[in-house]
Task: structure prediction
Amino acid sequence: MKRNATAVWNGSGKEGNGNLSTQSTTLNQAQYSFKSRFEEGVGTNPEELIAAAHAGCFSMKLSFVLGAAGFTPDKIETRCDITLDNGAVTTSELTLTASVPGISAEQFQACAEDAKANCPISKLLNCNITLTAVLV
Result:
């Protein structure tokens, strides 16, 4: 499987602007700029997209790990906070809340740690990945 996205940037780093489009067209010329990346401007930014990718990938991987262990989750909700520090992504913080009938706290934690270590985006990132997991 291969997927693609395209970025177009116009102008200087600080005063310029750009747009991002994905093969699926989920993003279709979504704007980004210095302000949307480093301040509170309108638009998206690469770190926000990494956060979405990591949260989505981890959640789906956890569903597969739970299924392999004999459990079907009612709901998995993951928030991901990406930290950009001195030009590098230094941390990806996963905050998980899940409802999984019949699972023990220990089994849940083991499955969550497995998903954290083995989801493709976790394997891609070269940063500290933390996980806070709450079973409800």
